[in-house]
Design goal:
It is built from 14 helices and nine strands. It is an alpha/beta fold.
Length: 321
């Protein structure tokens, strides 16, 4: 009888382990209304249908299981988690990949596709995987162009002097905002609304979807279309968990992540003009300015962070037909 009970317990444990092995928890700080979440829903649908439900994808919004950095640490430890994260945050683990968040690096989506499909980018992803056990599933998730969000008109970098501006706590973002003339203030995005409302912050910078979704139009008055950073993100998971899967399931997950990234990007592109119109209706003044002074002001970022040579390598990839 005892032997039968032990066999039963071992069967239950084995079943639970197998279930966990074939389950991926995807965590994002974004809301369920964000285009990136729609992309994650598409990713879930594709993976589960193509694997005949052998791989389950569970989605969690609002950083329910931890912030991006927490999830990356869990993934490095082998946990079956994934997170949609930008290159700036990943630069902590793999320096070169941080250039994806550099100011005015890419001009359009065709350049993004060319870069993330290149051997140069793959070398960065390989280093990230070999050193930190983080697997890039796809890095073609474009969340939009980042613009300045202030309570006064901004025409040139000098207008940002003394302005406390929220940004992401990654070196490339901090140096970019500093070079533009503002005082970078790293803070969780979930705290931006209250920070602006309580005057802890003077300004922020974000893409249209994030501005509208977080209702930041209620606590600011101006958007300056600087497009200083293209918010390029990737779906990143545990390399150890990924390697534990059969090759066929690995291929399905990789392919689905790329398809979902293109899907989410298309939604962002399609929504931009409508969101801009709605932001104007909410009372925001939206200014299109001469970008040349901002481009010039941020060229120093590449030298400051040691990215000058890497930028030339990127340009070489983009010039290569």
């Amino acid at each position: 009888m005892v032997k039968l009970i032990l066999i039963f317990i071992l069967c239950v444990v084995s079943t639970n382990l197998a279930w966990a092995k074939n389950q991926l928890n995807v965590i994002t700080a974004l809301s369920s209304h964000d285009p990136m979440y729609k992309g994650l829903e598409r990713f879930k649908l594709l993976v589960e249908s193509k694997t005949d439900q052998q791989v389950e994808i569970r989605l969690f919004v609002g950083s329910q299981l931890g912030n991006d950095e927490d999830i990356l640490e869990q993934a490095m430890a082998g946990t079956n988690v994934a997170v949609l994260v930008d290159g700036g945050r990943l630069s902590t683990y793999q320096r070169e990949i941080g250039i994806l968040g550099a100011p005015y690096l890419l001009q359009d989506m065709s350049q993004l596709d060319k870069l993330v499909e290149s051997k140069l980018f793959q070398s960065w992803a390989d280093k990230l995987q070999n050193k930190n056990h983080l697997k890039v599933l796809a890095f073609n998730w474009w969340q939009g162009s980042r613009h300045l969000l202030t309570n006064k008109a901004i025409d040139q970098p000098e207008d940002l002097a003394g302005v406390r501006m929220r940004t992401v706590g990654a070196p490339i973002w901090i140096e970019s905002i500093k070079a533009m003339g503002a005082t970078p203030t790293p803070l969780s995005f979930t705290e931006v609304y209250s920070g602006l409302q309580q005057k802890v912050l003077d300004a922020a910078e974000a893409q249209y979807d994030a501005i509208y979704g977080a209702r930041l139009y209620e606590v600011t008055s101006h958007i300056t279309k600087t497009s200083h950073i293209q918010l390029i993100s990737g779906l990143v998971t545990s390399a150890d968990w990924f390697d534990s899967l059969p090759p066929q399931q690995q291929s399905i997950i990789i392919e689905s992540a790329a398809i979902a990234g293109r899907f989410a990007t298309h939604i962002v592109q399609s929504n931009e003009s409508q969101i801009e119109q709605e932001l104007r209706q909410q009372g925001l003044t939206i200014n299109k300015i001469n970008l040349a002074p901002f481009v010039e002001a941020t060229t120093s970022v590449y030298e400051t962070l040691g990215y000058s040579e890497l930028r030339e390598q990127v340009y070489e990839v983009l010039r290569d037909e």
